[in-house]
Structure formats: structure tokens, C-alpha cells
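Q: Make up one entry.
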Amino acid sequence: MPAMQPPTYLINLDRSADRLERMRAEADQFGFTFERVPGVDGASEVPEWLSEQFVIESAMSSGEIGCYASHMTVWKRVRDQHLDYAIVLEDDAEVPDGFAGAAHAAIAAAPPDWDIIHLSINFKRPSYP
């Protein structure tokens, strides 16, 4: 990644050490770093501050709850650290060559009032290809 790499967080469940190692190898290969954020197991450990977001009657699966709660944990970290932006990766992401350039181009092309940029290889309606 260029010298000014945005803060990058990797969501990774404690029990998924193999995924963490694969992402470390990707980071080494493509020259970026990340801070690991422990993923939330939606079946058993939703943080207290998020518990009212996910009611028992929810139609969401425990995997969906864990995914959303994990992302909300990172969003809280970004807010609490007063970061202008950050990259959030899941531990099953496929990081292509050129990832850093694509991330920087998306940030540069974003309108002044942007909130979230979803980087994806197969996104149905991209705002920025």
C-alpha cells in the first residue's frame, strides 16, 4: 500500500486462526498491515452495549448477528478514535493485487458527505467501478 495506508481492521473470530494466518500472508504479499479485531460470535457473545440491537425474536441467524455486531464494534472504534475513514476487512476477504490503489481511488472519488464505501469484486450496482 502507499505510504499513507488508511487504518485497516480485520474482523476475525478467535476460533478462526487459519483465516487469520491466510490474511497475514495476503497482507505480506500485497504490502499492507491491519489490526485484528476479534469477531463477535452471534450465538453466544454479543457485547452488552449491542444487545438491544439484536432482540431474541430477530429473524437474523446467529451468523448474521455476529457479522453485524462485529462491524458495529469496528465502527465504534473508528468513531471513538475520531478517524476520518478506515478499511474494514473480513477474514474471508480476497485481497486482489491493486487493492490499495482501488481503495485510495474510491476514497478520492467519494462525495464530501460519504459515510461508507463497500469495496467488492461482485457488487450489483457500484457507484464507482
Q: What stands out?
A: The helical segments are 17-30, 62-80, 99-109. The mean pLDDT is 83. The two ends are 20 Å apart (CA to CA).
